Amino acid sequence: xxxxxxxxxxxxxxxxxxxxMGMKSEDLVPPKRKVVVYVSEDKVxxxxxxxxxxxxxxxxxxxxxDTEESKSTGVxxxxxxxxxxxxxxxxxxxxxxxxxxxxxxxxxxxxVSKNAEGIPARFKDPDGxxxxxxxxxxxxxxxxxxxxxxxSVFDYADPRWKDRTVIANPLFGTTxxxxxxxxxxxxxxxxxxxxRAMKDNGVTMSTSxxxxxxxxxxxxxxxxLVDSDDAVSRIRQGQPVTMVYPDxxxxxxxxxxxxxxxxxxxxxxxxAKRLIDYLLSKETERRLAFADCAQIPLxxxxxxxxxxxxxxxxxxxxxxxxxVAKKMIAIQPFLRQWAGL
Length: 341
Known about the structure:
Layout: H1 3-21, E1 34-39, H2 43-57, E2 60-65, H3 74-81, E3 90-93, H4 96-104, E4 108-109, E5 131-143, E6 165-168, H5 173-186, H6 188-200, E7 204-206, H7 209-217, E8 223-227, H8 228-236, E9 241-244, E10 255-263, H9 269-279, H10 282-290, H11 321-330, H12 332-339
Parallel strand pairs: 1-2, 1-3, 6-7, 6-8
Antiparallel strand pairs: 3-10, 4-10, 5-8, 5-9, 5-10
Helix pairs in contact: 4-11, 5-6, 5-11
């Protein structure tokens, strides 16, 4: 080897050494992959899922949650405000109507996950903008001592139950979504007539589904329309109540799935798709089924606790969630009048 070559190699080594000496140790480590997810599902239930994803993939999850005060709309409104410079990669909504609002505003990017296969088409957007998973059902929680228990939402208007029922304020939460679904299913005239008949029959309005379930559990009312997790919680607490999936011979039970979606111009699109794949997996659905939220898997064959009926054995309400989203806005004046506000 010629002296010139040796000197050149030594020179390169010296330069590299000097460069490395000037670098911090963290500069030598590749940047850690991460994904930013905005979450409407309760933190106590969603965080273990996100922790499991981190452990499985090595991808750091930065999660931003709704507060109790802005439940289900806080992070959605933040996504709308950040539309020009998105910070989030994924939105985990606790109901698909929120996904539809974002889709209609052009804030989502279509992505069809491999794990969306097997989830019934009625629980996902046909163009891939969002996909449902792990659902709540809108059920009747009924006092155990009641003879000939109600079997339909429409029993609220039956004189047999006059002054013996309670329902959460229809201006908020899943009760709003459910009322909008009834308007889509029945048409405006029939739905308005039902709600007026329910009010004329002496229904009491509570502040939330949880309060409604508690009032039934304590024996103040005979039944209430709530989310399935509210009913399961009271059953597990040993309260004297049962859970009825309504309208199994009619319109079917209304299902409220979670929804996962990819944000348009997401900063970390590859990691975002990995997270969506995980949220839609059978592993996640099993975890949420056996958590205290007791959510119903949308994939067939996922084990469930004894309190839940598999989705394939239920007659479910066939609604277009996009139409429900539009109807929620349209019926606000009527709901305010009905609630006396």
